[in-house]
Amino acid sequence: MNASASTPTGALAGIKVLDLSRVLAGPWATQMLADLGADVIKVERPVAGDDTRHWGPPFLRDEAGNDTREASYFTACNRNKRSITVDMALPEGQALLRRMAQEADVVVENFKTGGLAQYGLDYESLKALNPRLVYCSITGFGQDGPYAERAGYDLMVQAMCGLMSITGHADGEPGGGPLKVGVAVIDVFTGLYASNAILAALNARDNTRNGTGLGQYIDMALLDVGMAVLANQAAGFLATDKAPGRAGNIHPSLAPYQDFPTADGNVLLAIGNDGQFARFCAAVDRDGWAMDARFASNTARVRNRAALLDLLRPLMRTRSTADWIALLEDKAVPCGPINTIAQAFDDPQVMARGIRRTLPRSAGDGIASVATVASPMRLSATPVSYRRAPPALGQHTDEVLREFGLDEHAIAALHQQGVV
């Protein structure tokens, strides 16, 4: 562990987070808080740990290049945290977590609605011990409504909220039919919304002008988030009562804004205004297109999309992908390749921004370091810090328990009883 691992830094230095969440949405939220300097204590089940530790392949590799038993999935959302193991099914484990919650600023959990009440770890129980506590619950469908008791998963919510109905090629086209997004975006967006809500609640508690000094309860639901991130597609439906459908990579409100086959592959054109379209036409010696009444404005191009594509598709096949990018990149016409993830990590801009980070890990499990994706938050005065690699299961149990006042005898007893 480097010297900075135990040094509070960042915008949230001094904030202590008790992370009772698993899988992706909750851990994504708490990783953002950890990146910003909060001390995030990740509570995991003894022996098994977070489910995603086992969601492989792919797995992390040891120093000899061999697969370990730790799935890479876990590392996507657990950087900068300390892992402890506690069996909350045992009374001693419950008492230990309540003791920790008394000193925490934030608790994040994603158990089923009401699931923690039996352990005395629900909001009302912990609020009585710590009125300043900000408590965030993440569920599939929220704390009320007819679906409140149901378990919720990203794929299910992508389907229910309508996202899959607008993702993929249209029915009747090759490959047509609903598709999920290639990443669990509802979980990720829920994590983003949750972290924003937590920061707002902390500010409401601590603001020097009108802070209440009290925490509050945050009810986050995957379905709510799924509906919210439909963005312009939802706005279009609300304005017209007409549900949009799948249109592949075509943008419903812009043209041309999609992928095109080239002489050797594919290229992406993302023309978002009339000036860009005019510059594109000039670059390909088709100035007349920009003056054609069918294409002179974006609205006209959208309405006459089929005619425009009949002209563009054969034209785009006349050059290679690299030739199109070379032609258009200095003319302020948005154009780019459709990369694989491997190609994206090799992109000069991605490399220049330091997106790939490798963090050392000294947990005695043969994994010397873990590669991770840098946070996109770039703060000038309180930058994100990379203090810890995603931890091994229970790596910091004894360290954290000592900080909460337990002596070596008490810690040894908890180990012996199977509580930690």
Automatic annotation (TrEMBL):
Q: Name one GO molecular function term.
A: transferase activity
Q: What Pfam families does the entry give?
A: CoA_transf_3 (PF02515)
Lineage: superkingdom: Bacteria
Does Isomerase appear among the keywords?
A: no
* Keyword line: Transferase
User: InterPro entries this protein is in?
Assistant: CoA-transferase_III_domain, CoA-Trfase_fam_III, CoA-Trfase_III_dom3_sf, CoA-Trfase_III_dom_1_sf
Q: What is the protein name given in its UniProt record?
A: CaiB/BaiF CoA transferase family protein
Q: Which species expresses this protein natively?
A: Comamonas guangdongensis
